[in-house]
Amino acid sequence: MWLPLHIGIDDTDSTRMGCTTYIASLLIEKITKREGIFLDYPTLIRLNPNVPWKTRGNGAICLRIRIHADRLDQVIEEAIETVKVNSDLDDGKTDPGIVFYVGEKIPREFTNFSLKTKQDIVKKNEALKLVKKYGAKALSFKYGRGIIGALAAVGETLIDDHTYELISYRIKRNRGTPRKLDEASVFRMDKVMRGLTFNNVDYEKRGVLITPRGPDPIFLGIRGESADAVKRAFSLLKIEEEIERWVIYRTNQGTDAHLRPVNNIDLIQPHHSVIVIGTLSRNPISIPGRHVIFTIADENKEIDCAAYEPTGKFRNIIRALTVGDIVQVFGGVRPSSEKTPMTINLEKIKIIRLNPKFLIQNPTCKFCEKHMESMGKEKGFRCKKCGVRERKAKKVQVQVKRDISTGLYIPPPRANRHLTKPLSRYGIEKTFYNTSPSDFWGHGPINHYL
Fold it and tell me: Which H helix or E strand runs over 212?
């Protein structure tokens, strides 16, 4: 008898070492050797990016397989051992968790729980109650907060919008050393794969974004609209070091899955990611560190919004706003502190309506059409060119053209979160999914795909 098994894993890494997706890549190979059949691509689920205790990318993994009943216990034991050996258990912030669920259909309560983990703060007891209710199995190391993300990964089936990411991994002796990748090949790949992949490079800074900087096992990650696209993009790169293995994941990255519409500012809570409409009640100001802060308000309350230095030229859009403009802001909510109030850290902004902007100017001469100069308080104006005097003339209000337009604005890719939807994905969101994975992992590089 063959059984459907869902394996969720989370919170195995730290800033020093480890990677949950790498553990998944090792398990994929072991499951394949046990003749397990993959029912879907491995899924990489990014959770709420605002939780204070998150690991590097706050991502959890799920492997959905069909395994013969005689090998079920063996696969479960191998999964536990693989997590134990490859997690950074010495790090105080690392709390691995694994969830095993046997069943054809994912319970609706698992799915609802998964949504909550992307938009809210969730306690471990909530996860454990669902695990017990539906006969799943949960295993934790240390405190085991990773059970939350593990169950969330099991519950997220990505039946709506999703993307793909090909992640390749380094051999052990190269970890902790600079990654060797021909950067020019990344820019060439980006031009060839425009519209099929996203966030490969940052043209504003001429920087490569697909390679991380830390000592973790990941060599690079390419995100795109299909498994075929990310595989082709990988094959176009000039890689200058040995690759241990690679895996293609189906994921919620680039979908805005974390953002929650809020009807009014009064309902905004810390650590959430929100979408809210408001009217500028205070003009943008620049503060030390080159951040830009402004305030929006509705009929109930007001809240500060911040565009930080890494958002680059995006801050010019923010600086051009003025009191009375109506905007829709998207971003994570930073809690208040002794020095700062609760603030929305901007991920993007939609300008809905621009308030007319006026300047007060001296009147123009009716003969020369040049601006006149004041002759003193309540003494009128005179024209420097022709000498005409207008004792009853007064300053005039002139509407000026705004430097910005209505529309959606997103910071450059280097400042985007994993979940932030880039402009290139608007209008091509998926309403279907393919659960027939093929050739989604391998060893070494991929030969040229063209």
Answer: none
Which pLDDT belongs to residue 305? 97
Give me the number of domains the chain comprises. Answer: 4
Question: Do residues 341 and 333 lie in contact, with contact meaning Cβ atoms separated by under 8 Å?
Answer: no
The answer on 280 and 252 residing in a single domain is: no
Q: For 377-402, how does the pLDDT look when each residue is reduced to its tens digit (9 = 90+)?
A: 777 787 776 767 676 677 777 888 88
Which range marks the domain in which residue 366 is found?
359-400
| CATH number of 321's domain | 2.40.50.1010
Q: How far apart are CA 146 and CA 10, in angstroms?
A: 5
pLDDT on residue 60: 95
- Tracing tokens 């799920």 back to the chain, one arrives at 62
Structural domain contains residue 365? yes
Report the percent of the chain where pLDDT is more than 90: 72
Residue type for position 287: I
Query: Quick one: 391 and 407 in the same domain?
Result: no
307 membership: H or E segment, kind and range: strand 302-307
Residue 373: inside a domain: yes
Is residue 215 classed exposed, middle or buried when 0-12, 13-18 and 19+ CB atoms within 10 A define those classes?
middle
Q: For 14-37, what is each residue's pLDDT tens digit? A: 666 668 999 999 999 999 999 889
Which 3 state secondary structure label does DSSP give 245?
strand
Kindly state whether residue 385 falls inside one of the protein's structural domains: yes
DSSP assignments along 373-389, one per residue = EE-STTS-EE-TTT--E
Is this prediction's pTM over 0.85? yes
pLDDT at 396: 76
267 and 248 together in one domain:
no
Residue 319 C-alpha from the chain's centroid? 24
Predicted confidence band of residue 282 (pLDDT cuts 50, 70, 90): very high
Exposure class string for 297-336: b at 16+ Cβ within 10 A, else e = ebeeebbbbbbbeebbebbebbbbbbeebbbbbbbbbbee
Largest distance between two CA atoms of the chain:
103
Note whether residue 338 is domain-resident.
Answer: yes
The burial class, CB within 10 Å (0-12 / 13-18 / 19+), for 379 is exposed
Average pLDDT, the chain: 90
Instruction: Work out the end-to-end distance of the chain between its first and last CA atoms, rounded to an integer number of angstroms.
Output: 41
Distances (CA, A) of 293 to 264, 287, 341, 343, 415: 20, 8, 12, 9, 17
166 within 8 A of 247, measured Cβ to Cβ: yes
How far CA 376 is from CA of 311, 368, 379, 382, 393, in Å, comes to: 46, 21, 5, 10, 12
pLDDT of residue 15: 63
| Closest C-alpha among 60, 58, 80, 87 to residue 138 | 80
